[in-house]
Amino acid sequence: MGVIRVLTSEDPAAVATHGTAIEERYGLPTVSRCIPDQPYGIHDDESEARAEPKIVALARELADAGARALIISCAADPALQETRAAVGVPVIGAGSAAAAVALGLGRRVGVLGIRDEAPPAVRALLGDRFTASARPHGVHRTTDLLAAEGPEAVLEAAAGLVASGADTLLLACTGLNTIGVRPLLERRLAVPVVDPVLAAGLLASYAHRA
Known about the structure:
Elements: E1 2-5, H1 12-15, H2 17-26, E2 31-34, H3 45-64, E3 70-73, H4 80-86, E4 91-93, H5 94-103, E5 109-113, H6 120-126, E6 130-134, H7 150-163, E7 168-172, H8 175-178, H9 182-189, E8 193-194, H10 196-207
Parallel strand pairs: 1-2, 1-3, 3-4, 5-6, 5-7, 7-8
């Protein structure tokens, strides 16, 4: 299982974080690689446009090296259709995977991410189940989540979504998996919280060929 990270890092353990979560949850062997020259990941239209050709190129490398399925570990699903057209293995976008799981859990889905609006791929799939979106205070890039105040800012934004009527929360940034905030949100807010990395791993478990 190839895991494409859109946040550039020289730390192998950091790059492997999402793959490790998938291995621990679903027992799927993973290989994680990151695209180059994106130290803040994808956080706006410009950074997404720069990332897209790099994602396709890395997907080709992983598929050529024997990956049986690929995960684009970004809730914006960047270059998802282009990547599917470029390789001959299943390709899963973390955002659409999370939306699919959220649809199975609730009727009013609140989307928590690092942009002011929900990712278009997520919003399109949720349709009329979409309730509202929120961005934690002070968070504009995935790296902002690593600040000491990150988890509390996330909790505050998530609580606002639940107060507005959301019965399910969708984490629309894979960096929220990195900081491990899902158990805190479920414990404090008592609603299901969909982690996009784990949702992508769930779908990958169906696509995987032993």
